[in-house]
Amino acid sequence: MRYILIIFSFVCFSDAVMIATSKKHKADTLLLANHYINFQSDVIRTNDRDKYTNKFGFQEQIYIFKPVYYTENFLFSLSLPYRKVNQKITHENEMGIYDISAGIGYFIPNDYGDLLFLSTLQLPTGEYDKNKPNGALQVAQDRYEIQEELYFFKAVKDTKIPFLIDALLAYHYRGENRDTKVDNGNYIGAEATISAILSPNFFIGPAIYYKRYSKEGLITPDVGSSKYQIGLDVLYKFDEKNSLALEYVEDKEVKNRAEGNRFSLRYVFIF
After folding, report:
1. What is the 3-state secondary structure (H, E, C) of the chain?
2. CA gap 4, 236 in Å, rounded
3. Taking the mean position of all CA atoms in its chain, how far away is CA 188?
4. DSSP letter, residue 176
């Protein structure tokens, strides 16, 4: 049997410790983010959350260079990803340029924190082999995607242990594959991180995710799939311009897709 695995791309890419994007910076600030994301899975779950196999042997690695430019109330972002995937059960390995995306965001005035609406267009610019059979492992997805996301960031400092709140609501309109005409439906997601400020440079706290794919499913196509994720985020600021973030999350309550864990690393430099 051939397994079809389509890993969600950019909330994969907007993952964890979202401070670099959701926090409002001074006007005319350029932020350069370098991401590394590693997802591994041996287990596939059915729509009833039963274990279908524990020999999936899938690994996905994504490298992303993401410049973000801030004006007084807007931000502009560009994501340049490279993706490497391998699947032991089918002995497939692929690597190459993934789909580029560009976004524009607006910081909504309010009295509670930094509230950002970000709209991103993902373009089918990545490597895709039309000569491969339907269901074969591919680097990119050969489709357009519009990602609408609402971020919230707030620093709470009037408590015994000050902390940061970072949250995200996302809805992605995903077009059909231009080659196969397969429609994997849309995506809805939510993320939240609460990080204790243990020092001016060190932040740590739990993260929780919910991801729902309306039609995309590994075992039962067209009925959709979903999962929760829980994990830990750590952020260290070397100085005002340099920071390093790490995250580890595990999949929970997985329905009709791969179950695994994800490690991510991000270095940010601010001009």
Report:
1. CCCCCCCCCHHHHCCCCCHHHHCCCCCCEEEEEEEEEEEEEEEEECCCCCEEECCCCEEEEEEEEEEEEECCCEEEEEEEEEEEEEEHHHCEEEEEECCCEEEEEEEECCCCCEEEEEEEEECCCCCCCCCCCCCCCCCCCCCCEEEEEEEEEEEECCCCCCEEEEEEEEEEEECCCCCCCCCCCCEEEEEEEEEEEEECCEEEEEEEEEEEECCCCCCCCCCCEEEEEEEEEEEEECCCCEEEEEEEEEEEEEECCEEEEEEEEEEEEEC
2. 37
3. 12
4. P
Greatest CA separation found in the chain? 60
Q: What is the CA radius of gyration of the chain?
A: 19
Which numeric CATH code is attached to 10-270?
Answer: 2.40.160.40
Q: How far apart are CA 72 and CA 14, in angstroms?
A: 22
20 sits in which H/E element: helix 19-22
Q: How far apart are CA 37 and CA 83, in angstroms?
A: 9
Supply 158's token pair.
């009037």
Residue at 60: amino acid letter = E
pLDDT tens digits in sequence order for the chain, 271 residues long = 334 443 333 334 444 345 555 677 888 899 999 999 999 999 989 888 888 888 888 999 999 999 999 999 999 999 999 999 998 877 889 999 999 999 999 999 999 999 999 999 999 999 999 888 776 788 999 999 999 999 999 999 889 999 999 999 999 999 998 988 888 889 999 999 999 999 999 999 999 999 999 887 777 777 888 999 999 999 999 998 999 999 999 999 999 999 999 999 999 999 8
Give the number of other CB atoms < 10 A from CB of residue 1: 6
